[in-house]
Amino acid sequence: MISITTAELYALLTALLWPLSRILALVATAPILGNPSVPIRTKLGLAILITLLVAPTLDELPQVEPASEIGLLILLQQVIIGTAIGFTMRIVFVAIEMAGEIIGLQMGLGFATIIDPQNSGQIPLIGRFLGLIASLAFLAIDGHLIMLAIISQSFSTLPIGTTGISTPIFGALANWGKEIFLSGLQLSLPVLAALLMTNLTLGILSRAAPQLNIFAVGFPLTLAIGWLVLALAFPYFTPILEHLFQNGFNVMMGITGLSDINFP
Q1: Residue partners of 23: CB distance under 8 A and separation at least 6
Q2: Are 30 and 135 in contact (CB under 8 A)?
Q3: Fewer CB atoms < 10 Å away: N or C end of the chain?
Q4: Which of 201, 9, 199 is nearest to 106 (CA)?
Q5: Alpha carbons 174 and 57: distance in angstroms, whole number
Q6: What is the pTM of this model?
Q7: In contact, 58 and 84? CB cutoff 8 Å
Q8: Among candidate residues 10, 24, 246, the one with its CA nearest the CA of residue 141
Q9: 223/227 Cα distance (integer angstroms)
């Protein structure tokens, strides 16, 4: 008859529960992996699979009951670390979608919105379009695999324990949050500049020829010029997206204390 003591049960539970909470927090908040269109069973299965691969490589875990106050604090600590890593890359995608929102408003497509299940709300059409382009570029550079590598190697620099979080996670995330507005404006600048010149030209035409129906001419003109400039600017978006993703990975490594990512 197989008998398991309470201490052995707690040791087995902590060996899986604490790393699973960190990995599951990343899977739930990271882009692509945390998309609501991905079934919950798939997310949970992926987190459990990664945990089973990572758990044997972890250092000795603290001998603390999971249901105790200290055990719950350790669980909360792991959730904060995983959420911070996933939220870092989420900021990059929000910045890209914000650029699309700014472009759509200037083109006159502010009313053209669609339901975005990832944000549980409505998002402008251009913002959703640029978000899909960013998702494809993120998958093309294996960004999802890099995130999983960072979270798996973070257990060596941020081990599970009762000492607390040594890296300034909240300060790094607060400083990184400005990237939403900075990168969003930089990505939309080409279209904004072209539409500004278009609006100035239309304003001069309306004063020079008052009989001209500026509303009938202005909307299709700004729409056509906006799409044209956006199409011409697409080849230059690739290095910008790669730069944003690389900055996101650098912030992730700064949060976790990693100096480099070692792939197996």
Answers
A1: 47, 50, 51, 54, 82, 151
A2: no
A3: N
A4: 199
A5: 32
A6: 0.81
A7: no
A8: 246
A9: 6
Quickly count helices (H) and strands (E) in the chain.
Answer: 9, 2
Question: Residues of 90-102 as b/e, b for ≥16 C-beta within 10 angstroms?
Answer: bbbbbbbbbbbbb
Amino acid type, 31:
P
Per-residue pLDDT of the chain (264 residues; tens, 9 = 90+): 456 666 666 666 677 788 888 899 888 888 888 877 778 888 888 888 888 888 888 777 777 777 778 878 888 888 888 888 888 888 888 888 888 888 888 887 766 666 655 555 566 778 788 888 888 888 888 888 888 888 888 888 888 776 766 667 777 777 888 888 888 888 888 888 888 888 888 778 777 777 767 677 777 888 888 888 888 888 888 888 888 888 888 888 888 877 666 555
* 116-121 LR contacts (CB < 8 Å, sep 24+): 117/35, 117/36, 117/37, 118/31, 118/34, 118/35, 118/36, 118/37, 120/36
| Helix or strand (DSSP H, E) at 115 | strand 113-116
| Domain residue ranges in the chain | 6-256
Structure tokens at 51: 């945990």
113, β-bridge pairs: 124
Residue type, 201: T
DSSP-derived pairing of the beta strands 121-124 and 113-116? antiparallel
Burial label, 178 (beta-carbon count in 10 A; 0-12, 13-18, 19+): exposed
Instruction: Give the H or E element holding residue 170.
Output: helix 169-176
- Overall size of the chain counted in residues: 264
